[in-house]
Amino acid sequence: MRTRLSVxxxxxxxxxxxxxxxxxxxxxxxxxxxxxxxxxxxxxxSRRKGKRIPRPIAEAETAR
Length: 64
Prior knowledge:
- The chain is an alpha+beta fold and about 60 residues long.
- It has helices at about 5-10, 15-25, 60; strands at about 30-35, 40-45.
- The protein has one domain (about 5-60).
- A two-stranded antiparallel sheet has the order 1-2.
C-alpha cells in the first residue's frame, strides 16, 4: 500500500536508514522505520498490522 502524500508531508524525514533506526530506538513508543515510496526518505511508524519485518541475514548465508 502506498503512503498517502498528505501523510508523508506530515512525517519527519530521515536521510539514512541508520538515522531512522537510532530515532526509533530512542523513542518511548515501539516504532519501526521504513523507506517512503513517495519521497524516498525514511519515516517512522507504529503500525505493525500487515507489515513484514525483514529477517536478519544469518552469518552462514553471508559466508557463501
